[in-house]
Design brief:
With about 350 residues, this protein is of the alpha/beta class. It folds into two domains: about 5-235, P-loop containing nucleotide triphosphate hydrolases (Rossmann fold, 3-Layer(aba) Sandwich), CATH 3.40.50; about 240-350, OB fold (Dihydrolipoamide Acetyltransferase, E2P) (Beta Barrel). About 20% of the residues lie in helices and about 35% in strands. Strands 6-7-8-3-9-10 form a six-stranded mixed beta sheet, sandwiched between helices. Strands 14-11-12-13-19 form a five-stranded mixed beta sheet, with no helix packed on it. A hairpin with a 3-residue loop joins strand 12 (about 255) and strand 13 (about 260-265). Helix 2 packs parallel to helix 4.
C-alpha cells in the first residue's frame, strides 16, 4: 500500500523522440501538495501533464494515484475515469459556450464533492466578471486562460494539472492571482502539478520544484534548496541566479579567488585543500561597502523595485552580480567604483 498521494516510478514521458523526459521518478506525499515543474520550452513538460491525465500512454514504469495504478505498460485508465483536470496553456474552452457556461461545465463535473468553492468567488478572484457572457472568440488569450483555470478549479479533481496557467496574465494582477490561487489550493487541499517557465512563480506556489533539463529530471526538492543548493552546473545555468567563478580551496571553511581574495563559509560538499573549484556566487552573497578597499567597476545596474542588481567587472573581467536594497542612499552609476565588504563570508558555499 502506497503512503504517497501520487507516485511516478521510472516513467519515460514521450510525445516524440525529441520531445521526451526519460526515467522520471517523483512522489507527491500528501493530498493538497503543490509541485511545480520548471524547464525550457519544448523539453517535454506538457507531455508529462498529458500523460498523467491519460492522453498519452506509457511503455514502462507506473503512475499511481491514491493507491490505484492509472498508467503502466499493461494498465491504462481512460482520462474521463481518472478525475484529473488538465488546464492547457492554449485556449481549450468550448467555442459554442460562453465564459460562464464553460465555467459551469467544470462545476457540474463533480457536484457531489464537498469542497466549498462557489462560481461567483472564482469568477471574482480571476477578474472574469466583465466577460462572463462573452464567447471564447470574443476574449483575449489571458482571459481565456483564466476562464479555463476557473473551470478546472471548480471541477474539484483529485489532481489538478496546470500548464503555464498565468503565462498570458497581465503583470498588474498576476501576483494577486498567485496569492489567491495558492490560498484556494491550500484550503481545499487540491493536489496540483504546475508547469511553468517562471522560477519566481514556481518558488512561490510549489512545495516542491522539479527542474527538467536535457530530457531528465535533474533536481526535485523544495524551492529553497533548488535555489540555494543547486545540484549541478546545468541547474545553476538554467536558473540564471548567479555565476560560477574559479577558486582554490585553502582550508576547511575557506577558499581564495584572485579578484575577491579570501572567502569563508560552510561548504555544502567537502573538497580537499588545494582543490580548484567553481564557486557559485549569487547576488545576495556579497555586501556593498563604500569604505571597502576592494572596489570594482560598475558595468550595469538593474532596478527591481525593492532592490538594485549591480553587475561589477573584476580585474580578470569576471562579471559579478550584487544585490543592494533600493533604499540605499548612494546609488552608483555605470563606470563608477563599487566597494565590496571584507571579509567576505557566505553562509553556504556551493562549488562544482
Amino acid at each position: 500500500m502506497s503512503e504517497n498521494f501520487l507516485e511516478i516510478n521510472n516513467v519515460t514521458f514521450a510525445a516524440s523522440d525529441k520531445n521526451k523526459v526519460s526515467n522520471v521518478s517523483l512522489n507527491i506525499e500528501n493530498e493538497g501538495d503543490v509541485i511545480c515543474l520548471l524547464g525550457p520550452s519544448g523539453i517535454g513538460k506538457t507531455t508529462i501533464l498529458r500523460t498523467i491525465a491519460g492522453l498519452e500512454k506509457i511503455q514502462a514504469g507506473k503512475i499511481v494515484l491514491k493507491n490505484k495504478i492509472i498508467s503502466s505498460k499493461d494498465i491504462h485508465i481512460e482520462p474521463e475515469k481518472r478525475n484529473i483536470s488538465l488546464s492547457f496553456q492554449d485556449n481549450c474552452l468550448f467555442p459554442h459556450y460562453n465564459v460562464i457556461q464553460n465555467i459551469e461545465f467544470g462545476a457540474a463535473r463533480n457536484e457531489k464533492k464537498k469542497k466549498n468553492l462557489s462560481i461567483e468567488e472564482v469568477v471574482k478572484f480571476l477578474h472574469l466578471d466583465h466577460i462572463v457572457n462573452k464567447f471564447p472568440h470574443e476574449i483575449s488569450s489571458g482571459e481565456a486562460q483564466r476562464a479555463s483555470l476557473a473551470r478546472s478549479l471548480l471541477s474539484k479533481p483529485d489532481l489538478l494539472l496546470l500548464d503555464e496557467p498565468l503565462s498570458n496574465v497581465d503583470q498588474s494582477f498576476k501576483e494577486e492571482i498567485q496569492v489567491k490561487l495558492k490560498k484556494i489550493l491550500s484550503e481545499l487541499k487540491i493536489t496540483t502539478i504546475i508547469v511553468t517557465h517562471d522560477s519566481y512563480e514556481a518558488f512561490y506556489l510549489g512545495s516542491k520544484c522539479g527542474i527538467i533539463l536535457n530530457s531528465q529530471l535533474r533536481q526535485y526538492d523544495d524551492p529553497y534548496n533548488v535555489y540555494h543548493f543547486p545540484n549541478s552546473v546545468e541547474v545553476v545555468n538554467f536558473l540564471n541566479r548567479g555565476i560560477l567563478i574559479p577558486a582554490k580551496v585553502t582550508g576547511e571553511n575557506s577558499l581564495e579567488n584572485e579578484d575577491l581574495g579570501t572567502i569563508k563559509g560552510n561548504f555544502i560538499k567537502r573538497y580537499p585543500k588545494g582543490s580548484h573549484v567553481q564557486l557559485l556566487l549569487q547576488p545576495e552573497d556579497l555586501e556593498h561597502d563604500d569604505k571597502s578597499n576592494l572596489k570594482l567597476e560598475v558595468v550595469d545596474r538593474k532596478f527591481r523595485g525593492t532592490n538594485f542588481i549591480y553587475t561589477l567587472k573584476t580585474f580578470s573581467n569576471l562579471l559579478i552580480p550584487v544585490f543592494v536594497h533600493s533604499h540605499h542612499i548612494h546609488q552608483h552609476e555605470v563606470d563608477e567604483k563599487f566597494g565590496i565588504k571584507r571579509p567576505i563570508n557566505i553562509d553556504h558555499i556551493v562549488c562544482f
